[in-house]
Write a structure and sequence with these properties.
heterodimer; A: 269 residues; alpha+beta; Alpha-Beta Plaits; four-stranded mixed β-sheet; two-stranded antiparallel sheet; B: mainly alpha; Formate dehydrogenase/DMSO reductase fold; 16 helices
Chain lengths: 269, 411
């Protein structure tokens, strides 16, 4: 199936390709994301089961002893799933209060914190742990409010939040395009993590636009998605030339070959 | 202090001192719950041990369990008023009260469980019609209203309240149209019991929970309905038996209890056939397509295969076989034992479907994480039980809920 046919109709399908072989695990994407999106620092950031990291970097290894040990990193934003038919992401379909939404024009899964009731059903539905609940009031010690990004509202305790592909940047790019009478260009809309990555491992753009680099990279045979066979049909691709890395990206039965299993569920009911 | 003039006509109850002492015990548990609730609302859900891996915890397990066990209300109502099994009129009042306790308790608990309790109504205002949870919210709330309508005439039948002619007239007429509410309750309850199951079955990115199904309904939708109506009548009967043991009085004839046992037996057997078929299909067809095996899902930490044997064997097939036998149903003790096992099965199913899908990592490089509830979570759970004990104790003491009581305790 071609890249364009994987997703429902819509003007854009913004997505990402992350080159695992280029990622050094430095965490610059995580820091840039937190700064851009006003993710606060909790009193106890050692509790990683409750701290908020929209862009989390997972470290994996090949399980072999030294000197054959190899390490790789999976930076993991929200993967902006689409499911089998447009709005059937694991999370959007379950939210009782329509506090998370699938944008038909961009393919971005949004989150509306002021509407979220905090039931956490979406957190349980997401297999990637990309959704974070605000277990605490985020402390903003005096002075720390000054670097807050005015384009992004900080969230309150008791609601869920997640990566939005820096949607406010898309809004800004649209405003610019409107004023200049042109279109949103590839470089007008880039996420903070993409810009921050020092090794250029992250490529962002419109998967629907064949001129965008991201569309070309995602079409590569070395590109794959996390848990692809569950049918989440997400828009964050990874790339590697290492077989063991790719095998870690999905669940396989013992006799199955890496990367040769099609999505089977297709988004459920 | 003598409150005997408020007791139902012709019955005796324990001394006020003993009753007050019992209430104080329950209120003590209630105090623990109130403190826990205050902390959770004032300081936030960081007072619990839930986290982003265990988005649901013991509260949701208790919620689902008591809603399943409270299904005795709607199914007994259905059999009594719609199927016209008059014998069950001797237990329907108790079933309604237990149902009311279970549903109102669950809603109270959910009020604490959501991160923004003041926004609870958003589920109605911004309803997402695709979400099973939306349907659960609608049906539980509306069914609670039905239960209140069913409960009100019982309260109005109190010996002193019924002396007021208008209230007596109102209660009498409510009774006459109870079939309407019983039928409405049946419809609503069927759907939300199913939706609670559907909530898990639709999680297509969570292999442990996901089930195939028909049209928009995963098989868990139907299985949850069946397990609820199989265990609900057993739970209602068990509470009546427990009240009999505590009060030392006979409240319903054994024939009524046997009938409830028989209903549970057939429904539980039917449920088990489908549940076992569902488990086999899921393990052999659904899971391999997702790249995981049954052994992997039941091999993590404390969540071993013994859970399957307990849920389907000890708390499933065994009580079904016991309840199917007339000899067992005739024995008070064995009937109670089989019913306890049956109810444990429903609770265990809700536990397994709530906790285990979250406990088992889906990403191959994700780690297994454990969860044990905090004292605040236990406090609220205990508070719901205390709430039930208080309501049922008051109802038993002051309301004529057992029509056979006077006759069975003559002499």
């Amino acid at each position: 199936m071609s890249l364009a046919d994987r997703y429902s109709a819509g003007e854009h399908r913004f997505g990402m390709v992350i080159d695992v072989d280029k990622c050094t695990g430095c965490g610059a994407c995580t820091v840039a994301c937190m700064s851009e999106n006003n993710v606060g620092v909790l009193f106890d950031e050692t509790d990683k089961l409750r701290s908020i990291t929209w862009m989390r970097v997972y470290q994996i290894d090949n399980g072999r002893p030294f000197p054959e040990t190899q390490v790789a990193f999976f930076p993991r934003p929200c993967l902006h799933c689409e499911g089998s038919h447009g709005q059937h992401t694991p999370c959007v379909s379950v939210c009782p209060a329509t506090a998370t939404d699938y944008d038909e024009h961009t393919g971005i899964v949004s989150q509306i914190p002021t509407r979220c009731i905090g039931c956490r059903y979406c957190v349980g539905a997401c297999p990637y742990h990309a959704r974070y609940f605000n277990w605490f009031d985020t402390p903003w010690p005096s002075g720390l409010e000054r670097p807050l990004n005015p384009a992004v509202a900080p969230r309150m305790r008791g609601v869920v939040e997640k990566c939005t592909f820096c949607y406010h940047r898309f809004q800004r790019a649209k405003n610019k395009a409107f004023l200049s009478g042109g279109k949103v260009e590839e470089m007008d809309y880039q996420t903070a993590c993409t810009e921050a990555c020092p090794s250029g491992a992250i490529t962002f753009g419109d998967l629907r636009n064949p001129n965008h680099k991201v569309a070309q990279l995602a079409a590569s045979p070395e590109a794959f998605r996390l848990l692809e066979r569950l049918g989440t049909n997400n828009k964050v691709y990874y790339r590697t030339s290492r077989e063991w890395v790719r095998r870690k990206a999905d669940n396989y039965l013992q006799d199955e070959k890496t990367g040769q299993v099609a999505a089977s569920q297709g988004g459920g009911h | 202090m003598d409150d005997s003039k408020f007791w139902p006509q012709g019955v005796t109850r324990c001394k006020p001192g003993a009753f007050i002492a019992w209430m104080l015990v329950c209120l003590g548990l209630g105090g623990w719950a109130m403190l826990s609730a205050f902390l959770c609302i004032y300081k936030g859900l960081n007072q619990t041990n839930m986290n982003d891996f265990f988005a649901f915890g013991v509260w949701i397990v208790v919620d689902l369990a008591i809603i399943a066990l409270g299904a005795g209300a709607f199914f007994t109502g259905f059999m009594t008023y719609v199927l016209r099994r008059d014998e069950l009129k001797n237990i329907i009042n108790a079933a309604v009260i237990i149902g009311f306790i279970c549903y109102s308790g669950a809603i109270l608990m959910l009020g604490i469980d959501i991160g923004q309790p003041a926004r609870g109504w958003f589920g109605f205002w911004h309803a997402n019609v695709h979400s099973m949870l939306t349907e659960v919210m609608f049906c539980i709330t509306t069914y609670l209203i039905v239960l209140i309508v069913e409960f009100v005439p019982l309260v109005l039948e109190n010996r002193q309240i019924s002396k007021v002619p208008d209230l007596s007239f109102f209660a009498h007429n409510l009774h006459r149209i109870m079939i309407v509410f019983a039928a409405t309750g049946t419809f609503l309850s069927f759907f939300h019991q199913g939706s609670l199951g559907g909530m898990y079955g639709v999680l297509y990115a969570r292999p442990f929970a996901y089930r195939t199904g028909i049209v928009i309904w995963p098989w868990t939708f139907f299985l949850f309905i069946l397990s609820a109506i199989a265990s609900g009548p057993s739970f209602t009967t068990l509470i009546v038996m427990l009240t009999e043991k505590v009060s030392g009085r006979k409240l319903t004839s054994h024939k009524v209890k046997m009938m409830m046992g028989k209903v549970s037996a057939y429904l539980l057997s039917f449920y088990l056939v489908l549940k076992i078929a569902d488990t086999l299909y899921w393990a052999n067809v659904t899971l391999p397509k997702m790249g995981v095996t049954f052994g992997e899902l039941y091999g993590g930490g404390p969540y071993g295969t013994y859970l399957v044997w307990m849920e389907l064997g000890l708390f499933g097939v065994l009580p079904a076989l016991l309840l199917l036998q007339r000899r067992v149903r005739e024995s008070y003790g064995l009937l109670a034992l089989a019913m306890v096992l049956n109810c444990c099965g429903a609770v265990m199913n809700r536990f397994v479907m709530t906790i285990q899908p979250l406990a088992i990592p889906v990403l191959p490089f994700e780690k297994f994480v454990g969860y044990l509830p905090s004292w605040q979570e236990w406090g609220i759970s205990a508070g719901v039980i205390a709430y039930g004990l208080i309501i049922f104790s008051l109802a038993y003491r002051y309301l004529p809920i057992f029509p056979q009581e006077v006759e069975l305790n003559k002499g």
